[in-house]
Amino acid sequence: MQVPYLSDRKSYDDAAELMAMFGANAGYEAAARADRSLDMGNHIHFCHWRQIERLIVLLTYDQPLGTIH
Fold first, then answer.
1. Which of these, 26, 37, 57, 61, could form a disulfide with 22 (CB 3.0-4.6 Å)?
2. Predicted structure pTM score
């Protein structure tokens, strides 16, 4: 899995907020927000919410990902 790019702390805060509000459906909510942003032509917010979706998936894993040194 590719690690999502986080440009600032707001990305993590948005992911944590969605996880607190929507629980297991937080990734779906992030995807829905990305789709709405794309429909409105806001590509910056679209990219932001797609990265949040990826971050939520990454945060839900209980085991380490990638190479362990």
1. 26
2. 0.84
